[in-house]
Amino acid sequence: MVEVRNLRYKYPGSKDQVLHGLDFSIPQGEIFGFLGPSGAGKSTAQKILIGILKQYEGKVTVLGREVRETKPDYYEKIGVAFEFPNFYGRFTAMENLSLFRSLYQGTTSKPEELLDRVGLAKYAHTKVDNFSKSMKMRLNLCRALLNQPEILFLDEPTSGLDPVNARLVKEMIIQMKTAGKTVLITTHNMQAAEDICDRIAFIVDGRIVLIDSPRQLKVEHGKRRVRVEYRKNEQIHQEYYELEGLGTNQEFVQLLGRERIETLHTEEATLEDIFIKATGRKLE
Amino acid sequence: MRLTAAIAYDIKLQFRHGFYYAYLVISLFYIALLQFLPSSAREMANILLTFTDPSMLGFFFIGGLVLLEKGQDIHNTLFVTPYKPEEYIFSKTLSLTLLSALSSYMIHVSQFGFTTKPLLLMLGVVMTSIFFTLAGMGVAFRCRSLNGFFFLSTLVALVFVLPLSDYLQIWSTPLYHLLPTQASLLLLRSVFEPIPPLQWIYAILLLAGWSGLAFLWARYSFRKFIMLQMGGDGP
Ligand SMILES: Nc1ncnc2c1ncn2[C@@H]1O[C@H](COP(=O)(O)OP(=O)(O)OP(=O)(O)O)[C@@H](O)[C@H]1O
Ligand SMILES: [Mg+2]
């Protein structure tokens, strides 16, 4: 679906190289996440993939076409939502979606159905000026889905959403995947990335420093041990045991039989820990 | 078709933002103004007002429209669809031209009824509007704020209203014949003072040439100042 080889980029008129040779590919049906601190180049990479910035070096193919050579009809096949949802404020949600729908030639979805999926059916005839950020974010997702895209590019899809709506959006993204669509998201939000991404790439200073599934990253970078907390003489005690051969570890087995256990956890690293370890940086 | 849909939505948008009311009020004001003038001055005043309508109004209204869209960052969402920049530019231009043509025609008819043959006049209005709207759009793409737009566009507009000094018999130079304004005035005046074919052909070609240049410039400004800033870090 997406093939990127040695992608380098510099904004016109700027001296600084923003991307220093990215390499990755995204197979069909995958949810792929870009994670990285502010200024890392995530949005720049996304703008290249969606054909806005064309003066890049390297190879970038999406749906089998070199993005540099695509024409506006490229947008018939892809869906894009930027972090800031922008609409005509004096038009209603429905008018906005109908306007955007009229710009496509291929098959499009019915705006009513999309609005219903994101819980905005009631507000179809409300002016977007009167929408909250969360409503605009969901409307933005509807807009990106209008043309039933094969591949969806979302910049910070859950930012500004309350937990209920963030979950709704995450579920919609997972539904897209189930329908065989490919999704690329860009985010600061580790939890969102961990919840929905099949693979994530950590980007720092225009370079990919790690790329793998969240699960694999956690297994590889976490400490392979369990932490046991138990109460003895009114005091909390902690013990650590290697996961390797845990079932036959006499000390561990006896402890379980002997003491009153309060908690028992494997010591997985969080994505945040892994990120800090890999990059020496915090995400925010 | 995409372009017709775009024009329809642009008209709707201009309506929602009160452009039609604003034009109506301005036209009624012009009509009232003309009523107070002695009939000897009415023709000249009518030409001048008919000139400002598509030119200056088109110029400033397109600025308002583009900056309004910039303020809403709407380009971020418009141009991740198959909508082509050229279609956007045509749709904005033609929708505003329609408005100019309606109001100019209304003003003209209010003064002279249906007795004149306004074909060349309306052609002049339409072509003038197309040129000034394209020029104003190019300026607006480059500006961040309404103030910046008014400053820059006043400078640009000044150059193009200079030939009025010839019409008002204040000062003249042959160089005026190269400016589109001269051609506009020629076409507008033809309704009262018929002109030979060679003259109106010259006027139409000159306006078409300037409109072509203005289109290329607007498109270049669009690529440089709108496309490259898209998906930026927002407002
Ligand atoms: N239009 C532009 N012109 C010049 N430089 C730019 C432009 N947009 C971004 N940059 C620079 O490119 C670098 C990468 O920016 P980018 O927006 O891709 O980062 P990001 O990873 O998306 O950050 P964030 O998490 O804040 O969204 C930054 O140093 C930024 O200053
Ligand atoms: Mg960004």
TrEMBL record, chain A:
Residues 2-230 form the ABC transporter domain. It comes from the Bacteria. GO terms for molecular function: ATP binding. The keyword Transport applies. PROSITE patterns: ABC_TRANSPORTER_2. InterPro entries: AAA+_ATPase (IPR003593), ABC_transporter-like_ATP-bd (IPR003439), ABC_transporter_ATP-binding (IPR050763), P-loop_NTPase (IPR027417). Keywords: ATP-binding, Nucleotide-binding, Transport. It holds the Pfam family ABC_tran. This is ABC transporter antibiotic-transport ATP-binding protein. It comes from Paenibacillus aceti. The lineage of its organism: Bacteria, Bacillati, Bacillota, Bacilli, Bacillales.
TrEMBL record, chain B:
It holds the Pfam family FLQE3_permease. The chain crosses the membrane at residues 20-38, 44-68, 89-107, 119-141, 148-170, 200-220. InterPro entries: FLQE3_permease. The keyword Amino-acid biosynthesis does not apply. The keyword Manganese does not apply. It comes from Paenibacillus aceti. This is ABC transporter. Keywords: Membrane, Transmembrane, Transmembrane helix.
